[in-house]
Design goal:
mainly alpha
Length: 43
């Protein structure tokens, strides 16, 4: 459980630093996927 917390914190911190283009594309895919899930759950 602690490991998941540190991974989540690292993702938040890492996404706010300069990124290579491949990391930005991966982030956009993940964020879009999460948004699609939350939109379906909210309906």
């Amino acid at each position: 459980m602690t490991m998941l917390l540190f991974i989540a914190i690292g993702i938040v911190i890492g996404w706010n630093l300069p990124q290579p283009s491949w990391a930005k594309q991966w982030q956009d895919k993940v964020v879009g996927f999460v948004r699609s899930i939350t939109n379906k759950a909210g309906q």
